[in-house]
Amino acid sequence: MPAPEELVIAQPPEPLATSKKRKRPKSVEKKGKKKKGLDGSKPAKRMTWTNKQRALVFAARGITFHARHLMNDLRILMPHSKTDSKLERKEGLYAINEICEMKNCNMSMFFEMRKKLDLFMWLSMVPNGPSARFLVQNVHTMDEMRLTGNHLKSSRPLVTFNKAFDEQPHLSLIKELLKQMFATPNMHPKSKPFYDHVLGFTYLDGRIWFRNFQITDQAEGSLVEVGPRFCLWLIKIFSGSFSGNVIYDNPNYKSPNQYRTELKIAASHRYKAKAEKNAKKAAVEIIPKEDELDEIFHTITKDELKQAG
Q: Which of 43, 124, 168, 258 could bridge to 131 as Cys pair (CB 3.0-4.6 Å)?
């Protein structure tokens, strides 16, 4: 009989030589542990972006290029703003609240134009209000004026108001609206953490005047205007966002249509006065002056001889 074959037991392969793990030096601090100061105090907490206010800045269809340039200038001054396509005319103003909700915005600045002549601005706190409507006048954009002032884009502004805003209740409400709309939130990702320009709002002659200045010298307080310029004439304040009860109605406001009608009436009065004056001149009879030499060269007629005889 053949001899039985010997069983060969396979041995496991030898492990490959691997690089030894390096030990972390003691000088390197572990993650998650904060290094204390020399005096044993805790390090200061890092500032975070807590005021997450966003403003939706857009317009309705039908605005002119001049109004569009003003809107773009205001977007540059507001790094916390968002944009959207133009609102269709058939859609109501209440649809702006839904757009703000989709864009995650709690404020809105909306421009609309009537008759390609009159520009109106809405400022609203979404979704509960209040909201205010203004007539925009005396518009001058940055490209139009080309002033020498220049400040960094997206830097935080100093928003200033004159004393008149604290004298009346409706002006205090407008002041709060403008402050929340134009003030850039602290530590905003798109903003720069310093101040180099001033946004000034002045209430004078029943209107709110807007100016933008660059801070050239902080020690002396010298300013150079940058632009844009415009003037806001308050029309009404509503309790809700683009709706609600009327909180304040400006009694001194005069609509542009009424103003143009008064100009036409005044022009017609001037025309009527001028026409009556010309008619009076034509009605006056021109009486010739008597000449002293007419008696010398006067020819005696037969009738005069009969009367004399």
A: 124
Find tokens 């310093």 and name the residue: 194
> Which residues are paired to 231 by β-bridges?
137, 209
In this structure, the number of other CB atoms found within 10 A of the CB of residue 292 comes to 7
Distance CA 84, CA 75 (A): 12
With 0-12 CB in 10 A as exposed, 13-18 as middle and 19+ as buried, what is 57?
A: buried
Q: Tens digits of per-residue pLDDT, 208-226? A: 999 999 999 888 889 999 9
Q: Where are the alpha helices (DSSP H) in the chain?
A: 65-77, 95-102, 142-145, 169-182, 256-283, 302-308
The answer to whether the CB of 36 falls within 8 A of the CB of 28 is no
What pTM did the predictor assign? 0.73
C-alpha–C-alpha distance, residues 95 and 79, integer Å: 24
Contact 135, 256 (CB under 8 A): yes
C-beta separation of 152 from 41 below 8 A: no
pLDDT in tens, 75-109: 999 999 999 999 998 888 989 999 999 999 999 99
